[in-house]
Structures are given as structure tokens and as C-alpha cells.
Hints:
heterodimer
Amino acid sequence: MSGGQTIVAQIGIILSGGIRIMIPIAFGALGCTLSERVGVINIGAEGIMLAGAFGAVVGSYYTGNAWIGVLFGLLSGVLLASVHAFLTVKLKTGQIISGLGVNMLASGVTTVLLQSIWNNRGKSDLVTGLQNIRIKGVENIPIIGAVLRSISPMLIILLIVAIVLWFWLYKTVPGLRARSIGENPRSPDSVGINVPRTQILCVIVSGAITAFGGIYLSIGDVSLFSRDMVAGRGFIALAVTILGGWKPAGVLGACLAFGIAQGMQFRLQEFSVPVQLVQMLPYVMTLLLMFFLRSSHGPAASGENFHREGE
Amino acid sequence: MNFKSVKKLSFSKLAQSPIVISLFSLILSLVVSGIIMAFAGFSPLEAYGAMFVGAFGGLSNFADTLGIATPLIFTGLAVTIAMRGGILNVGCEGQLYIGGMAAALTGAYVKGLPAIIHIPICFLAAMLAGGLWAVLAGVIKIRANANEVIITIMLNYIAIYLTDYLASYVFKADGMVVKTNEIMHSAVLPQLYPHSRLTIGLLFALLAMVFIAWILKSTILGYNIRALGQNPYAAEAGGIRKNRMILFTFLLSGALAGMAGAIEVQGVHTYFISNFSNGYGWDGLATSVLGQYNPFGTVLASLFYGAMRNGATMMDRMTKMPPDFVVIMQALAIIFIATPSIIRKVMSIFAKRRGQI
């Protein structure tokens, strides 16, 4: 009987580890979902997360208050997303080049500022981080006890964001209009919807959502910023968006599956599997899933800039 | 009055020319970066001065600039050929690592050959390995019907970890350092300038430029690639086998990126060491955009990037400016180039001012 108990406990640990891995990627993927729904692909997710992570640490460092850090992180993400929105929607820059430019910009600006603020090319000083919410007396609930014992406030924000995003996209008229832009911007344009304005607003909001992912990485998890700490999660978020079928619920599910699978890999290291092979697995897994699931088609006009007749 | 309108006409014509747009974007990115530098409390003149000396001051510095430009030419051409076929190959970094590993193994384990045979064999191995790695991206793209950008980025991570694993376990040389065995002397690229990064690799890079320009301009294959890039539906309707062309374009592009790895391994390091690339694959994307997807333009842009990279080391030594600042300059440059409307607007402001005077 005790053997069974440990398996349950193990599952609980894997689940809570999986959620930790999932949070930043899920924010990124929800952000990508929103922006791709209005036809703007967000290759800059990586950079926006990095900016969010950096802004949060700066805010927390100067004020000593982690929640002001969150605000700074959001502002940094929104600022960068506005650049992407302005370039792609107003100036018709290629979306992928603009996104890659945003990534480079974020990487350059954060490392330069890192050096000028902390005089360190690698990482920042320790700052005040977000405190987890601790719930007493739930440790003994099987499986979810390990999760509920100590909840990051960012997990709660994630769930709220996902629900609001789902409700807005599928249950409101503006959401329906936004989705129609991603399918074919000409039809909403022809009935008088302001396509560029909707796109810009949605990309900016998606920047805020994506920035939460970076904020979690820096002040929700380790309480410092280190150089290029997003480490590809923005790109994984893009892939997970495809796997989740551009739907908030699907995206959350795909992220959780991804997180759990990766959480299990840390166990693999205990069996002395070379670390490189373990690190490789999330990417291999993502590609295999893409290859075999042949995900549903996404927003048809995503990635293409909208030009009105004569523009 | 007549004179004025003629001048205005020529100015708007100028603003359409790709070379003018590229040059102007570069200048604009230097100016904007300079303004940021000044705000951050550094002297832009001092920084640019140090960069210029680092890149062009003396033959040895200039040779290093050319040497750093060499792999960038290959990755830039890789992006260019793919882009002309409508494929955005962001996977050069991974293809470079796979190619570099193939060159390192062929260089170390194939023995008893004269250099004139050994070097080309290593190149072939690198091109084949890099090309097939890129084809893998093409296969997934076709099957999953997904954007190649995400697929190639995933494959980059896989390639980097895979080669790191191979260098750390399977082909690890004896000793403390994690690297593969030294390649045979017959596989090492002869240097064109002593004690520099400049090797005969540069000549192969220029050869590759001519070859790619020739393919694009004068062959049926190039015609098909361009047709696919301009309008995939029309190309398919016109009888071009779309999927086969996509795979072939990936093969060609990956082979070029693989060559960049071979050049670094055989010319600079003489073995495979993890994370040797410094983002050459990513910069290839920038040089291709900067070169407006033209083979010759890509080479020019690579030389400029080589100078920036080489100059950044000097800037780091001579000034207090963080070397990462170069990344901001590069980001601004590709954003400006990809947004010709900014350049046209700025140029028209200049034109108006001139008109007033």
C-alpha cells in the first residue's frame, strides 16, 4: 500500500513541477493566440518576455515592491509590442522580420541596461520576488495537494487571463470581429470595422499577456534577471499555440501537457541520461506533435499584412 | 520651377532603389544608435572611432574582419536563396552546427589524404549534413502545413544540443576540454594572412555568391525557385512541383549554412567545440535582409557585419561602452531596411529641406 502512496505523491510532484514550467509558456502562447487571431504573428514573443522579465526586476529593485515590478514588466512588454504593432500594422513591415528585430532589440537593450545598472554582464542583483500564496491543511489531498500547498499568484492571473480571453474571443461581438480579421481582413473592413485599430490594440494587449510570462520567470521564480533568461520559451510558445489550435483552452491544455512531460524529464536525469538529450526533448516533442497531429488550420490571414485597395 | 520638379523626381526615384534604401537604413541606424549612446552617457564618436579602428585599422585587423565576414556570407546566401523561393530559413544556426560537426568528424577520422582532396571532402560532408538537416525542416513543413520559422527554430535548439552531446560523449577527445579530436593537418584551411581568421574560405564564399547568382539568374531551377517565391499558386498551376521545389530549396540553403560551419571548424578552431558559432546563423538572416535578398548585396552586408563584429571587440577594449550595444545597432538596421516607408519619409524630409533652400 505504501508503494501506491508514493506513486500518488510522485504524480503530485510532477504535476506541480509541470505547472511551474507551463506558466511562462502559457502566458506567451495566450499572447500569441490573441495576436494571431487578428492576423499578426508574434515572432517577437521571445523578446517581449525578455523585456517583461527585465522590467519587472528593475521595478522591484528600485521600489522594493514586487507588484510595482509586475507593473514595470507589463509596461516594458507593452512598449515593445507597440513597436511591433506600429511597424507591422502602420508601416507594413514584414511581420517575421519585425518580430526578429524586436527580439534582437530586447536582447541588446536588456544586456546593455543590465551592465549599466548592475555593472554585470551576466545577471542582476537579487530583488524582492512575488510571494507564493500558501494554503494550510491541503498537503494531504492526493495529487493536487502538492499544487495547492503553495500557489504562485501568477498561476491565478494566468487562469483569469485565459478565461477572459476565451470569453472575449468567443462570447462577445468585438471578439467575433477580431477573429474575423484574422481569417480575412477584407470582410470586416468592408462592413466598417476599423481593422488597423483593432489589430494594434490586440497586439498591444497580447504584449501585456506575453510579458506576464517573463515577469513570472524573473520575479515569480528566481527573483533576479539573467542574460537571455527566456531561453527559447517565446518560440516554444509560438509552437504550442499551433498545437493548441489557436484556442485559449487548447493552448492551456497543450502547455500543461508540455510542462508535465518536461517535468518528467528532470527525472530522466536521475537515471544519468546525458543532460543534452534531456534538454533536447521539449523541442523534439513539439516537432513530433506537429508532425503527427497535423494541427487544425489557424487564422487564414495570420502573418500577412493588411493592405486596403489602393494602399 | 522646371528644375525643382526634375530634382524632386530624381529624389523619389532614388528612394526606390534598393541600394539607396540599404545604405540609408544603415546610416539611419548608426545615427539613431548614436543618439541612444549619447543619452546613455557614452560618446558615440569615440565608440564609432574605436569600432572603425578595430575593423579596418591595419592589415591584420582588416584580415580578421574579412575572416569574420566569411561564415556570414555563407549563412547570408543560405537565407537569400531560401527567401527567393518564399521560404524563411531561420534554421541556419542549427544547420551550421550540424555542418560544422560533419566537417570536424570528416577532418579528424578520414586519414591519409592530400589537402587538395581532404578539404573538399570535408566541405561536401558539411554541405550534405547541413542540407539534409534543412530538408528535415522542409518535410515537417509540408506534412504539418505549418510555418517554417517555428520549425527551423525548434530544429536549431535540437541541433545545438545534439552536437553538444556528440562532442561531450560520443566523439569527445581525451582531456579536460569538451571538444572533438583535432582535424588532420590536411583538412585545415590555409590562411591568406598569417595569424588571422582570414583563410581560403573567403574565396569559396565569393565563389558561392557567383554560383547562387548564376543559379537564380540563368537556370531553370532558379526560375522555378523565384516563381515559387513570387506566387506559389501560379507556380503550381504552371506545372512546378511545389513540394519538391521546397525540399530542394531547403537542401541548397542548408548546404550553404553547413559550409559556414565547415569554414569555422576547419579555418578557425580545427576541432568542434560546443557553442562555437556566436550567432552566425542569426546574423545571416540580418545580412540577407540588409542585402535585399540579392547575392551580391548579401556579400556587401556580410562585410559590413564582419566589420561591426570585429570592431565591437576593440570598442569593448577602448571604451566603456558595453559590446552588446552592437546588437541594438543591428536590430535597428534590419527594422529600418524591412520598413522602406520610414526611409522614404526621412528622405522626403531631406528633399523638402533642400527645396526650401
